[in-house]
Amino acid sequence: MATLNPNAEVVFFETSADALQAVKNGQCATFLEDSNFQQYQAAQNDDLEVVGDSLISLEYNAIGVKKGDQDWLNYLNLFIFNTNVSGKNDEMYSKWFGEPMPFDLNPQY
Fold it and tell me: Rounded to 5 degrees, what angle do the CA atoms 20, 103, 16 make?
């Protein structure tokens, strides 16, 4: 990061909430975090804005399931699939992040 601005001071925080608070109170000018967190915070705070492109084109999230719990895994897979194909995922994304989902879903089951 400092190669883009050699005069920038890099500061680390224990939590994303601490980094967000540092930006809001003027302690820092900006912070890096995953785009989902940033979009949500910008949607909730009129004084925040997400700028620039994502550092990676698509961020995958995951749910961990106890090894061998096939029933729970099947339920989650079906739930996620139905949420995606019904359009509910797009609806919830727009509600909570304040903008349309930035990529198309290709639900497969």
Answer: 15
